[in-house]
Amino acid sequence: xxxxxxxxxxxxxxxxxxxxxxxxxxxxxxISELTNSLYPPVLLGAEAACRAAGxxxxxxxxxxxxxxxxxxxxxxxxxxxxxxxxxxxxxxIDNEHLFRxxxxxxxxxxxxxxxxxxxxxxxxxxxxxxxxRQATRLLLDLGHRRIAHIAGPSxxxxxxxxxxxxxxALRAAGIEPDRRLLAEGDxxxxxxxxxxxxxxxxxxxxxxxxxxxxxxxxxxxARDLGAGVxxxxxxxxFGNPDAVRYAVPGITTIDLPVVEAGRLxxxxxxxxxxxxRDPTREVRTLATNLLLRETTASFQWREEASEAxxxxxxx
Amino acid sequence: xxxxxxxxxxxxxxxxxxxxxxxxxxxxxxISELTNSLYPPVLLGAEAACRAAGxxxxxxxxxxxxxxxxxxxxxxxxxxxxxxxxxxxxxxIDNEHLFRxxxxxxxxxxxxxxxxxxxxxxxxxxxxxxxxRQATRLLLDLGHRRIAHIAGPSxxxxxxxxxxxxxxALRAAGIEPDRRLLAEGDxxxxxxxxxxxxxxxxxxxxxxxxxxxxxxxxxxxARDLGAGVxxxxxxxxFGNPDAVRYAVPGITTIDLPVVEAGRLxxxxxxxxxxxxRDPTREVRTLATNLLLRETTASFQWREEASEAxxxxxxx
DNA sequence: TAGGATTGCTGTACCGGATTAGTAAAGCGG
DNA sequence: CCGCTTTACTAATCCGGTACAGCAATCCTA
Lengths: 315, 315
What we know:
Chain A is of the alpha/beta class and about 325 residues long. Chain A has helices spanning about 1-5, 15-20, 40-50, 65-75, 95-105, 130-140, 155-170, 190-200, 210-225, 260-275, 300-305, and strands at about 25-30, 55-60, 80-85, 110, 120-125, 145-150, 180-185, 205-210, 235-240, 250-255, 285, 290.
């Protein structure tokens, strides 16, 4: 009997099955920029968790909020059993459609999105503040005092939090953040390059860059300026180590646990899909990892001495 | 009446709808490596075409052939109306599952996959041979005679075709390809770097690299070797210009019309989804574009002259 | 104005399974 | 060996729509 079924190549019609059971055994992962190097590992983690639970994972792209709204509608129409969003870090977007989806539809979990702690859905966060503090501390521990920062856009919470972490670390070391040592970029290569050019007159000996691609730009700027890295300038980046993989020298990076984020998000959504409506909400914040590579070195007096005039001391 | 429907937020159950109509108004795009910089534009093109036709586009990942097989099963189970595959360029994979899907299920179209001309599905191809010939001709026209080539893996048809185009261009110019000017890489940065190091003793004045990331590696190698680009070595890459976006100098690249490939693939699959089973098969080959940037320059005698001994002439 | 054609609406049979009720067969203890 | 419970299989109903048939009402033309 079973052999016959197999021989005839029978496959139950999942549409009919889903219509009857009201479950599709499918989770959807909504991503914004396909190019973002953080996605592949997130997908990896989520996919593994889903397969382990016997669920399928579908992907959908949503380049902007409007597309996200549409995409979510489509996925709800397809009756997915769960929704994972890893999208925009923009601050002032309207998230009402997420709440509506979560209310009427399947469980929703967001990764790295700016939502209040008491938002009615599970959240996976990265510790941008702590990571930035970690980066800055490293530079402080190496003896640097004039530590510049190229921040992400202030319209993104990632940019804001990282800057806040940087400033907190400085203050904890008794250093008042210097306006002239701060620049803002837009996460692009060019903005990173321009930022370091602009900062250079303030004579930083170390630099914490709030984004991986911007760090590549800063590295280029250092070469433009004839500044040796790490001899004349120590550099720490924040972001995906894979994105800066081909840079020379290898950039010391604050790494985000993205695979784990994907896994946790999937597990979260799967649990809720199985257990029915559980009103409790989880907000988990994942710690960053420091990946020491070649762009960080102890502060050396010689550079300062070789300059025309030593900068006014600040301590 | 319609207002009431709207106010109550009624949405027809697509599962039931699809079960009854046997159509899901959904196309699936199967991708292998999420990191591949060619995907975003393909997605762009395919998505636009699908939306224009009122279809939804879903994504699914399939890192290897086994995963691809599974993924296709899942998508067939979901009763998608069409399947676009843009996956592996490996030569000796078993494509039987594709044919089976096409036979029993929705129309299938492949982008850049090694299949015989008479395979029972639509194909979108890139003119790897022509593009490589175009690249090599450019270098020939600039006066170069010692043109090296870093080929992709011979286990990939992309690697083979590009190498063939390179050799054809040389022969057409009366130059017999020189074994010592040929190296094979695996499309990785490191292999490109190592390849140019290995080729250097053969004194090339120009280099055609069969892959974008390998070209970055070659560029690095040139710097390792103290060779100025393009002064001492002209360089043309094959692949996605975006992938080498941040390289200095800007790498002259043979560009693939990926957006168009996505669009054509979607249109193809949509047409078949609508028109029913049409036994004719289309194989379309898309021409490449030459993107002139900064790594190509005319051959200058001075370099040869400055060398210890001129290479044995070949023409 | 009658007859045939077009239009509009209602009713019913599916689509392909899951679920549950219903029934027959088998198992069990007394 | 009988009556009751357990197990096995069959039949009916439902999931939420689509599609087509059937019929009444309206329209057109000769």
